[in-house]
Design goal:
It is built from ten helices and eight strands. By secondary structure, it is α/β, with parallel strands linked by helices. The structure holds 2-phosphoglycolic acid. 2-phosphoglycolic acid is lined by residues 10, 168, 173-174, 211-214, 232-236. Pathway: Carbohydrate metabolism; erythritol degradation; Carbohydrate degradation; glycolysis; D-glyceraldehyde 3-phosphate from glycerone phosphate: step 1/1; Carbohydrate biosynthesis; gluconeogenesis.
Amino acid sequence: MSASPYIVGNWKMNGTRAMLAEARAIDRAAARYPGVQVALAPPFTLIQPFAEAAQAIATGGQDCHVAAKGAHTGDISAPMLADCGASFVIVGHSERRKDHGESDALVKAKAEAAIDAGLGVIVCVGETLEERDAGKAEAVVSKQVDKSLPSAEAIAELAPGRISVAYEPVWAIGTGRVAEVEDVVAMHAAIRARITAAYGDKGEGVRILYGGSVNAENAAALLAAEGVGGALVGGASLAAESFVAIIAAAGTESVA
Ligand code: PGA
């Protein structure tokens, strides 16, 4: 696991320009935790103003198209994200897999398009409640990792810290229901095994984040769990107060 924890906020389809003040408050607070790598993925419309103002945290997109440009009405490409200041993109979030029917193959193509554009990538995976109840969670997630991650060739020139996998059980997203720490540890170990199979030694620097109802109260226990390299945070990243509490759970405040 990489040394510094990676805490990423995913604002989903939330936030107008009025929310930029909240983002700036997060940025100012994050500067007090130099040992924590903090990032925020606002909606497309806020990427540029936020990236221009941010000093301590990285700005990213929540999705990108597989093509660099072309006749794809309403879509945004990875080079466009990079052009407006994004340094990473989230791909394969379960809401995109569900709302837009995204397959593992499409997620992989998006991840590779992002790398081509010089972006870091967070690839999301996670099982549904039915799959967990049927005892298939590890098999489902392992297959998603195998088929959604960019190829070893695609990452050959990339610093390993530029790729992360986010394990987000679908039933834990936005529900207030968090996975048990022991289940998170078991799944992160299974994901680590697949990353090693895909990338060999180079996979060591790939962080595995947990996501799904992470909040100020449960963050410390989740972040301390074996194999957890950070968190992907939805609802609790929308307010500086709750998001900064999660950042604080991941690191130590500097006494400047
Ligand atoms: P949540 O969302 O923290 O609101 O559960 C997490 C995510 O979907 O990334």
